[in-house]
Design goal:
This protein has 510 residues and is an alpha/beta fold. 37% of the residues lie in helices and 15% in strands. The protein contains 22 helices and 18 strands. 44% of the residues are buried.
């Protein structure tokens, strides 16, 4: 009987703090206790571990077994410590060798048979284990996810007996490697599938080039959702560190396993308009990331924007500015990244047909105003591009024409524009602060005169003015222009659709 010390990882937001598992097997009446702020699932590991050890034909210590999960003030949850506890008991009782344990970190839930079951939030633990210079021993079902981390030794196992044979030097576990997952290139819907709507495609390209938020306004069936789905396909490919950050958020969420075949894909999240504030920004007793964090470095698409609860939409204001979300609970605090591109869509009126040439709309001015008032002015101020997506005539849809421009061609222009932005300011135009705007978006006399007139006529706020400058800077970058011209400013002002009021009168049918 003796003491065995092992290393494992807890989960705390996007972090995976180290947990030292100390197991002491001594004399006294048979008992097993776990200390170190364990939650219910960790306390229940006593029965899982005991069953796994006995079914593996090992002896369970007859005396008192004490397990300490340090640090004591860090909450421990889930079955991720089962494997470390079981190996610690076997090591403390002299049934397995402990010489290689200082260089290992162990994760895994145990079945009563001794089989290893997968756990969640493996990717942050894998990153932390690599930084600590240790190998990671974990269930085989989690190995492909952990293999996304370069420079980490991964030892996958399917059963407690495999782990014990490896530690005793009988049968070594072969390191896991999945290089094919890192070579995968994502596939997205192609922009060439969208017929017409050249103005909307142009706005989509500007949004992609500068990282701007975007609002489509138009009747049902005009392609708003179709356009939004194609934004990830014209965004630059994620770098390795960005892709790992996105995959880590998905791993922490626990909603689904990280698919190594699609780990480089930019996320596209489209929550239903009945989603709650917690679903959107994250939360819960143990804070989990919400839709805005799951859309990190990708696209958050809010269809039927006015149908969302106004209080839910208001929670978007902070992360749209800061790119992060802070979640505080009585005993927990977590911070998640949330640098997403907001793309929203809405009808022009409650029935959806305001301005229809056939005069189908019968909404009153009061109904239209009440419908649009569901979206607050401060939120609209934070949406850089607002434009109409009109219904196309039947002749335009059925007429043969030249093939539309594919996403690859648009993405090449977007990448060139972003390269200019990185070289100039180190970030996208949408992320420029006030000081950077003054340095990188100077206007000549004609430009200042145009913006001044627009602010007076449209009653623009200072935030809307800054958004116009950022969009104009992006338009200039797409044109390979160092200076912002009147033409660039005019196009940027034209995208402030809701600042200019309705294009058609309610009930007028035109």
């Amino acid at each position: 009987m003796g003491l065995c010390v092992l290393h494992s990882r807890a989960r705390e937001g996007m972090r995976a703090p180290e947990v030292v598992v100390e197991v002491y097997a001594g004399g006294g009446l048979p008992a097993m206790s776990i200390v170190g702020l364990p939650e219910l699932a960790v306390k229940e590991s006593r029965d899982r571990v005991r069953g796994a050890i006995l079914n593996g034909r090992f002896e369970f210590p007859a005396g008192r077994v004490t397990i300490n999960l340090a640090p004591a003030d860090l909450p421990k949850e889930g079955g991720r410590f089962d494997l470390a506890i079981a190996v610690g008991i076997l090591g403390a009782s002299g049934q397995v060798r402990t010489g290689s344990l200082p260089g290992l970190e162990l994760l895994g839930e145990l079945a009563l048979t001794g089989a290893l079951r997968p756990v969640s939030a493996v990717l942050p633990a894998a990153l932390a284990a690599r930084d600590a210079g240790r190998a990671l021993l974990l269930p085989r079902a989690n190995a492909a996810e952990a293999a996304l981390v370069d420079g980490l030794d991964i030892l996958p196992a399917e059963h407690l007996l495999e782990v014990c044979a490896h530690l005793n030097g009988d049968t070594a576990i072969a390191p896991f490697d999945a290089p094919e997952a890192r070579e995968h290139r994502p596939r997205y819907p192609d922009l060439a599938d969208v017929q017409g709507q050249e103005h909307a495609k142009r706005a989509l390209e500007i949004a992609a080039a500068g990282g701007h938020s975007l609002l489509f306004i138009g009747p049902p069936g005009t392609g708003k959702s179709m356009l939004a789905n194609r934004l990830p396909g014209i965004l630059p490919t994620l770098a390795d560190d960005e892709a790992l950050e996105v995959a880590a958020i998905r791993s922490v969420s626990g909603q689904a396993e990280v698919d190594p075949a699609s780990w480089r894909e930019r996320p596209f999240r489209a929550p239903h308009h009945t989603a709650s504030g917690v679903a959107l920004v994250g939360g819960g007793g143990t804070p989990r990331p919400g839709e805005i964090s799951l859309a990190h470095l990708g696209v958050l698409f809010l269809d039927e924007l006015p149908e969302f609860d106004r209080r839910v939409l208001e929670v978007l204001r902070e992360p749209l500015e800061s790119g992060r979300i802070h979640i505080s609970r009585a005993a927990r605090h977590a911070e998640f990244p949330a640098r997403f591109q907001l793309v929203a869509a809405m009808n022009p009126c409650p029935c959806g047909y305001l301005g229809d040439p056939q005069g189908r709309c019968r909404c009153t001015a009061e109904q239209v105003a009440r419908y649009r008032a569901r979206i607050s002015g401060p939120l609209l101020d934070r949406i850089d591009l607002q434009l109409e997506v009109p219904r196309l005539p039947a002749e335009r849809l059925t007429a043969p024409g030249s093939p539309a421009e594919p996403s690859a061609a648009v993405r090449a222009r977007v990448e060139r524009a972003r390269a200019r932005q990185r070289q100039r300011a180190g970030c996208t135009n949408a992320a420029l602060d006030t000081g950077a705007l003054e340095r990188h978006c100077p206007l000549d006399d004609h430009g200042r005169q145009l913006v001044t007139q627009a602010m007076h006529r449209l009653s623009l706020s200072a935030r809307a003015y800054h958004r116009i400058l950022k969009v104009a800077r992006t338009i200039a970058d797409l044109a390979d222009s160092d200076a912002i011209t009147v033409a660039h400013l005019g196009e940027a002002i034209g995208y402030r659709r809701l600042d200019r009021g309705g294009a058609a009168q309610p009930g007028a049918g035109g």
